[in-house]
Specification:
Blueprint lengths: L1 H42 L5 H13 L2 H21 L4 H17 L4 E7 L2 E8 L2 E8 L1 H14 L11 E8 L6 E9 L6 E7 L1 E2 L12 H11 L4 E6 L6 H12 L6 E5 L4 E2 L3 E5 L8 H8 L6 E4 L5 H12 L3 E6 L4 H9 L5 H7 E13 L5 E3 L3 H7 L12 E3 L12 E12 L2 H9 L3 H10 L5 H10 L5 H8 L5
Parallel strand pairs: 7-10, 8-13, 8-14, 9-11, 9-12, 12-13
Antiparallel strand pairs: 1-2, 1-6, 2-3, 4-5, 5-6, 14-17, 15-16
């Protein structure tokens, strides 16, 4: 019996050693798997900085808790991509119609669909500034571009060539019809698409909301009450001439009068007007349309832009024959516009009698009143106010945009506002037109009579904190009159 006990002792010891070895191997395997999972989660982590460091601590101490923290952002992105994925083309078409409806509701003039890192951004241009409407993942963005291409009958397979087209879209709620011009272009990050919305509701425009003061609004309304005459809005390209013209038309276009517009293209919809879009391929030009319109018993005629002597001569003749004619032209200011008119070869007596009102303007960004920053005037402001034509005293403080903006604005700005110069044609100006004096003579005469020119109106808005000096200099220049 003693010998049997002695013989079984090594066997028990060997079994014990084997069990301990297996346990150690099991612990080592668990530790290896634990550390491997921690390293892999760190490599694929969606966290950064201190958050990532704390997640590493939890990975070592609490295992699955740390791993979950590392991978939670990745999981959330995957869930969002699944949520944003439309199952079929009908879903993307609904999204496209929703974008159009939102743009119409917000009064946007353009829609930009742009490829960005990781997806596409849809942005609206509202009052001159681009604002982001939504973001979608890359597949959804490409499908949206394809949907709009189908609307405009463009080649959906071609992504490396410039393409242009147009289509009509009807708002299902209001029934309003938009003409949409589509342009695509290849870019490094993906195809870019821009949509220009035309025939927008003109009710969005109002004479009191474009930057005119109460006295200027009343003076304009007084001249618009006259049944005949030529009213011209002058300025460079992009200065808001068409918008101001529609604000004027909103004042006079009522059901009791016959209003006709001739435009290229029709940018706003007037409910009480007949609107004609220019189409040179079909023989519909400004000159031919204006001649035809004069035979249709109009009271008010709006010509989108007078570009050549023939257009001006027909417009002057219409103004002299009992029609109120509103149009736009390219000119630096009101005096420059008069000089241009005088050089067209039109009889000065007729020209002086036909023109009733001249408006010159520029567009500048409007500061957010909630977050603008006030400070003493800098050297640019002092120099801008010291111009000989400025009739406004240098203020103690001027405003600038907030570096961060606020919830009510876009990077410190709330849109755009006009700066204006209103010239009412009186006997003194008619005499200058007929006699052919120099521009400086008229400018001096106007200044002596208290005329508020573009620079003075700009300085008034600067002193009120409505606009920024950098935008004022960009619009008018530092030393130009």
């Amino acid at each position: 019996m003693a010998n049997q006990s002695t013989a079984t002792r090594p066997m028990r010891l060997q079994t014990l050693i084997t069990s301990q070895s297996l346990a150690l191997l099991g612990d080592a395997a668990v530790l290896f798997a634990w550390m491997t999972a921690a390293v892999l989660c760190d490599r694929g982590s969606g966290l950064a900085g201190a958050h990532r460091a704390w997640a590493n601590v939890f990975s070592l101490v609490a295992g699955p808790v740390g791993w979950t923290l590392h991978l939670a952002p990745r999981l959330w992105e995957w869930i969002k991509s699944l949520r944003n994925t439309e199952p079929d083309s009908a879903g993307y078409e609904r999204t496209a119609h929703g974008i159009m409806a939102a743009a119409l509701e917000r009064g946007a003039s353009d829609i930009h669909i742009e490829a960005k890192e990781g997806g596409y951004a849809v942005r609206f241009r509202q009052v001159g500034l681009l604002r982001e409407h939504m973001k979608v993942h890359r597949r959804a963005g490409e499908m949206l571009v394809s949907v709009f291409k189908v609307f405009a009958e463009l080649n959906t397979a071609e992504k490396n060539q410039l393409q242009d087209g147009r289509f009509r879209w009807t708002d299902p709620k209001s029934g309003h019809v938009l003409d949409v011009r589509v342009s695509t272009s290849p870019a490094l990050s993906g195809e870019k698409m821009a949509l220009r919305l035309l025939n927008r509701p003109a009710s969005l425009l109002n004479l009191n909301k474009i930057g005119l003061g109460p006295a200027a609004c009343e003076a304009i309304r007084r001249h618009l009450r006259q049944p005949e005459g030529l009213v011209l809005v002058a300025g460079p390209t992009g200065s808001g001439k068409t918008s101001t013209s529609y604000a004027l038309l909103q004042e006079v276009s009522v059901p009791s009068v016959n209003t006709v517009t001739i435009e290229d293209p029709v940018e706003y919809a007037l409910p009480n007007a007949t609107q004609i879009g220019i189409n040179p391929k079909m023989g519909v030009t400004f000159e031919s349309s204006l001649r035809t319109v004069l035979r249709q018993d109009p009271n008010i005629i709006f010509v989108g832009e007078m570009r050549d002597p023939e257009s001006f001569k027909i417009g002057v003749r219409a103004a002299m024959s009992g029609h109120l004619v509103i149009s736009t032209m390219h000119a630096r200011d009101t005096v420059g516009a008069l000089t241009t008119l005088r050089n067209l070869g039109i009889d000065p007596q007729v020209l002086g009698a036909a023109v009733r009102l001249l408006i010159s303007q520029r567009l500048v960004r409007e500061l957010c009143p909630a977050c603008r920053v006030w400070s003493p005037p800098d050297q640019d402001t002092v120099e801008f106010f010291s111009h000989p034509s400025c009739r406004v005293a240098l203020p103690d403080r001027v405003a600038s945009p907030s570096p961060t903006g606020c919830a009510k604005c876009e990077q410190g700005f709330v849109g755009r506002v006009g700066v204006f110069e209103i010239m009412r044609i009186d006997s003194r100006i008619r005499t200058w037109v007929v006699n052919g004096g120099a521009e400086d003579e008229l400018r001096q005469s106007l200044a002596a009579g208290g005329f508020v020119d573009l620079r003075s109106d700009t300085c008034e808005k600067l002193a009120a904190g409505q606009i920024w000096i950098d935008d004022a200099v960009r619009a008018l220049g530092m030393h130009e009159g």
